[in-house]
Write a structure and sequence with these properties.
With about 180 residues, the chain is mainly alpha-helical. The protein has 2 domains: about 100 residues, no CATH class; about 35 residues, no CATH class. Helices cover about 50% and strands about 5% of the residues. Strands 1-2 form a two-stranded parallel ribbon. The radius of gyration is 21 Å and the shape is globular.
Length: about 180
């Protein structure tokens, strides 16, 4: 029976750390983009995670699929810029802050003060960013974490409203029915 040659005797964790350090040393992410400067772009918008929640195994799976898509297109010769993002508003943020402040409903938020609640939400959104960075690096997901788009930035918010306005004027937005767990 034919056996496969062993590739390495070093522990997996050690090998992964060594490879990760090498990729940082050669700036693999930057090189994968700049080496394809004149190539056709492949645009991939990452649906950003909310950094006020801890990453879980389902995030590893989702990020693996995102990374596979970008690596595949890079290997096919496209220029794939990879910009990370942070979702910093919405229901997940509100729920975390409600738990922290022991608030049970919207009336409790109003009693607490909407301005004070919003301030707590803004301060909470990067609570677990370090864990997200560690997970992202450990799984070798090539994405620019140092220059992310952040959904609470006014430029981002204004661009979303501009797009929604454009879609509305083009007739792409219509009234329909869909059940979603959200709150205005």
């Amino acid at each position: 029976m034919k056996r496969f040659n062993e590739l390495s005797n070093e522990p997996v964790k050690t090998r992964e750390q060594r490879i990760s350090e090498y990729w940082k040393e050669i700036d693999l992410l930057h090189r994968s983009v700049t080496s394809r400067e004149s190539k056709e772009p492949y645009i991939f918008y990452e649906g950003p995670p909310t950094a006020n929640g801890k990453p879980g195994i389902h995030h590893v799976m989702a990020r693996t699929l995102k990374d596979l898509t970008c690596r595949y297109k890079t290997m096919k010769g496209y220029q794939v810029k990879r910009k990370a993002g942070w979702d910093t508003h919405g229901l997940p943020v509100e729920i975390e802050v409600e738990k922290k402040l022991n608030l049970n409903n919207k009336q409790d938020i109003e009693k607490y003060g909407i301005e004070a609640f919003n301030k707590e939400c803004r301060e909470s959104v990067f609570q677990y960013e370090k864990l997200w960075r560690e997970m992202t690096e450990r799984m070798a997901y090539l994405i620019d974490l140092d220059n992310p788009y952040i959904t609470l930035d006014n430029d981002y918010i204004e661009s979303v409203w501009w797009i929604l306005d454009k879609f509305f004027k083009e007739g792409f937005i219509y009234e329909g029915h869909k059940i979603l767990p959200y709150c205005s």
